[in-house]
Amino acid sequence: MPHLSVNGPYGMVFEHFQDCFHPKYSISGFPHLFQKNSDIVKCHISPRIAHVFGMAHLLAMTKPLGGVHPIAVGETLYQFTSHTLCLQFCDAFTTHFSSHQFKVTIKGGCEVIVHDIKCTLNLHPNWVVF
Question: Can you give the residue ranges of every domain in the chain?
Answer without folding.
Answer: 1-88, 100-130
